[in-house]
């Protein structure tokens, strides 16, 4: 029996779930792209009330905005380290559940751009990438990572670095124009 704490902060939503052997015991989201820090600790506290302590933490590694990803990943790593359990990173776009054979999913990347990836039979065949919406054909947006799918991907993925697809906004003084 494996109990997983699932966390994703790659979108405007903070999403937390407790999944035990493929069964969702808890899944809740909080809307607010700048509120991940506060919302995450509250959602995890609520999640831990419904299940035994987790055996692993599964976290969305992006792509997503820098600050949102850092909040979720740092929390997941700290939580796992304190409990001496593993952390497994998953591409957040891969965890978006779409019931089609072929599709492209996207999430808001801000700055009038989207993060996107294309799938064939559930397997990523292109991306993740960041582009203007007009540059990506037939994408599905406003669908968020599913915690059950995020955890199911832990058997086949283990991403160790956040998926930042843009250069940082901050640059050293010597590199400024």
Automatic annotation (TrEMBL):
Residues 34-155 form the Gcp-like domain. Coiled coil: none annotated. InterPro entries: ATPase_NBD (IPR043129), Gcp-like_dom (IPR000905), T6A_TsaB (IPR022496). It comes from the Bacteria. Gene3D superfamilies: 3.30.420.40. NCBIfam families: T6A_YeaZ (TIGR03725). This is tRNA N6-adenosine(37)-N6-threonylcarbamoyltransferase complex dimerization subunit TsaB.
């Amino acid at each position: 029996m494996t109990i997983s704490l699932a966390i994703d902060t790659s979108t405007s939503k903070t999403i937390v779930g407790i999944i035990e052997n493929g069964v969702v015991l808890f899944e809740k989201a909080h809307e607010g792209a700048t509120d991940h820090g506060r919302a995450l600790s509250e959602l995890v506290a609520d999640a831990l009330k419904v299940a035994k302590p987790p055996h692993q933490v599964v976290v969305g590694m992006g792509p997503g905005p820098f600050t949102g990803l850092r909040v979720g990943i740092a929390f997941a790593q700290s939580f796992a380290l304190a409990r001496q359990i593993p952390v497994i990173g998953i591409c957040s776009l891969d965890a978006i559940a779409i019931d089609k054979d072929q599709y492209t999913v996207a999430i808001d990347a801000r700055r009038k751009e989207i993060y996107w990836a294309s799938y064939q039979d559930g397997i990523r065949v292109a991306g993740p990438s960041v582009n203007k919406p007009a540059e990506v054909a037939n994408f599905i947006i406003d669908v968020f990572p599913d915690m059950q799918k995020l955890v199911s991907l832990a058997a086949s993925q283990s991403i160790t670095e956040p998926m930042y697809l843009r250069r940082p906004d901050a640059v050293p003084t010597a590199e400024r124009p």
